[in-house]
Amino acid sequence: MDSKQMTRQKGVTLIELIIAMTIIIITLFIGVPNLQRLVKNNEIINQSNTIASFLAYARSEATKRKSDVRLCRGKIVEDAAECSSDGTNLLILNNADALIRTAELNTNISFYFQNLTSSTITFSALGVPDDTGEIVLCDDRGSSYAKGVALNMGGQVRSLVDSEINNISCS
Predict the structure, then answer these.
(1) Over the stretch 18-74, which tens digit does the pLDDT of each residue have?
(2) At a CB cut-off of 8 Å and minimum separation 6, what does 67 contact?
(3) Which of 1, 23, 56, 102 is the most exposed place for a label (fewest CB within 10 A)?
(4) 112: helix, coil or strand?
C-alpha cells in the first residue's frame, strides 16, 4: 500500500491522555482547598450580615412599635420562641415575648457576645440598646478567620475591622 494513500487516524495518544489527566489532577489539588476556604469565608460573612441586619431590624421595630424589642439566640418549641444559649435560631421578640422574626443559624459557626453583659440585647422604644459590645463569629479555623459586628450606644451596627478582630477570642 502506498504511504501517500494512507489516511491519518484521528484521536489522542496514551501519552497525551496521561499528560492531560496529570494537569487536571494538579489543578484540583491546588483548587479544592482554595474553594473550601472561599465557601467557609462566604458562610461566616453571610452569618455576620444576617446578625447585623437583625440588629438593625430589631432597633427599627422597637421605634416603630414604641416598645421594647429583644434580640437573642434561642429556639422555637411548640410554636413558642424562647431565648436559650443552645438555640439554633436568632430571634427578635416583642415585650410580650411574641416572635417578630427568626433566622436559622449556621451550626458550623459559633457566635459569642463579647463585652456585653448578657446574650440578649433589648432595644428601648427610642431604639437605644441596653448594652453595647460585639457579636463575634468563629468557625473551626479559629480567631484568625473570625468576623463580627459591633453595636454602639446609639444602636448602630458596624462590621468589625481587622485590627479589632485581632483582639478577639473564639471562646
Answers:
(1) 999 999 999 888 888 888 889 999 999 999 999 999 999 999 999 999 999 999 999
(2) 94, 95, 125
(3) 1
(4) strand
Phi-psi region of 68 (alpha: psi -120 to 50; beta: other; left: phi over 0): beta
Cα separations (Å) of 12 from 9, 26, 88, 169? 10, 20, 54, 56
Residue 36 main-chain phi, psi, to 5 deg: -65, -40
The rounded distance, in Å, linking the Cα atoms of 153 and 151 is 7
Query: pTM score, two decimals?
Result: 0.79
Following CA atoms 105, 98, 126, 49 in sequence, which dihedral angle do they give, to the nearest 10 degrees? 10
CA 9 to chain centre: 55
What does the alpha-carbon distance between residue 101 and residue 68 come to, in Å, rounded to a whole number? Answer: 14
Residue 4 has φ and ψ, to the nearest 5°, of -70, -25
Q: Are strands 80-83 and 133-138 parallel, antiparallel or unpaired?
A: unpaired
C-alpha torsion angle, residues 47, 136, 40, 99 (rounded to 10) = -20
Q: Give residue for cell 459557626.
A: 109
Amino acid code (one letter) for 121 = I
Q: Could you give the C-alpha distances from 97 to 54, 80, 103, 120, in angstroms and in order?
A: 16, 9, 16, 13
